[in-house]
Amino acid sequence: MKKIILMAIAFCSFAMVSAQSASEVTAKYNDAVAAYQAKNWSAALEGFEAVVKGGQDSEDGNVLSLVATSKKSIPTCYRMLGTRAAGAKKWDEAVKYLTTSAEKAELWGDNTAKLKSNQILAKVYQAQGGEAFNAGDYAAAVTVFEKGYAANSRNTGMALFLAESYFKLGEYQKGMDVCNNICAMNPTKYAEPIAEAKEKMSMYTINEVARLQQAGDQDGIIAMADSMLATDPSSALAEKIRLQAYNNKKEYDKVIELGETAAAAQATDEEKSDVYFIIGAAYNAKYNAGGNKDAALKDKAVANLQKVTAGNSVEAAKGALENLK
Fold first, then answer.
1. How far is CA 217 from CA 211, 228, 249, 250, in A?
2. Alpha-carbon 234 to chain mean position
3. What is the pLDDT of residue 325?
4. Residue 37: how many CB atoms within 10 A of its CB?
5. This model's pTM is above 0.85
6. For residue 251, pLDDT beyond 60
7. Distance (Å, rounded) from C-alpha 77 to C-alpha 38?
8. How far is the C-alpha of 128 from the C-alpha of 218, rounded, in Å?
9. Rounded Cα distance, 81 and 93, in Å
10. Whole-number Å distance between alpha carbons of 290 and 91
């Protein structure tokens, strides 16, 4: 009989401790909510974290509900602290809070909160990296922009800055990779950044071709063009620079093989004329190499050179046609 009484006393004591614990958790939660509504994010964060710590092992359904709500609120508190720090240009502090916000949201399965935090985090990195970019420190800018790109690759403004920084540092392929990722996005929603990415790709590809030509590396140009075509089979620029490289290597049969496809890919009369001039020059070179005896080669040269009607190659085509008379 005595043993039973002791057990009953122990059970009552446990019930009292549990009730006190639930009451304490509820009080902390109410204080946290009040701080949250007052936008006192630090106090709210402290309170919600105390609720999670004190109530996560409870068997009380009401307490567990408060814990679940607190877990929803904690990433928001960190995000708001990060946003406030970013507004004051306290970049390191902002990054710390926003990174923690995304991590907490991921831990507790809140993908929407994670996305929001990463979007703001990317903007913080964009602003921070922009300072280095504007100062011409592209290496430092890349270091920051890469972090932002990892947080939110759909921030096209920052992605374009990252690509430009790569190009400025001579990291041609890395810049192209970022631009290609932009170009693969929804063409209706992202029409403007896609157009800017294509413009960068064209400009820096021409610069890279010039560098490789100066080094006499025609095979490097061909490899670069092949890589571009593997990503974008419709790349008119890749077709054109590859054709020119084969012509520079005097691989005229390859020029003739690829010529019509390259011409068809071009969008303007000037670009088409440039390609037809290369094809005509290849036929002309083969005709000359054969001792000017193969009339069929001569006719092909003339036919292609006559298609050069616009752009910078017009006068050269006229001169070549005069020589073929």
1. 9, 17, 10, 14
2. 21
3. 84
4. 9
5. no
6. yes
7. 12
8. 40
9. 9
10. 69
Comparing CA positions, the residue from 147, 39, 53 lying closest to residue 96 is 147
Count of beta carbons in the 10 Å neighbourhood of residue 171: 16
Residue 41 contacts residue 81 (beta carbons within 8 Å)? yes
Q: What distance in Å separates the CA atoms of residue 69 and residue 52, rounded to the nearest whole number?
A: 9
End-to-end CA distance of the chain: 127
Q: Tens digits of per-residue pLDDT, 6-65?
A: 444 343 444 444 444 888 999 999 999 999 999 999 999 999 999 999 999 988 999 999
As a whole number of angstroms, the distance between CA 93 and CA 91 comes to: 5
Angstrom distance (rounded) from CA 116 to CA 124: 13
The residue written with tokens 């691989």 in the block is 251
Q: d(Cα 152, Cα 135) in Å, to the nearest integer? A: 24
Q: For the range 146-154, what are the long-range contacts, defined as Cβ-Cβ under 8 Å and sequence gap of 24 or more?
A: 148/121, 148/122, 148/123, 148/124, 149/122, 149/178, 151/102, 151/118, 151/119, 151/121, 151/122, 151/125, 152/118, 152/119, 152/121, 152/122, 153/181, 154/185
Residue 281 contacts residue 323 (beta carbons within 8 Å)? no
What single DSSP character describes residue 261? H
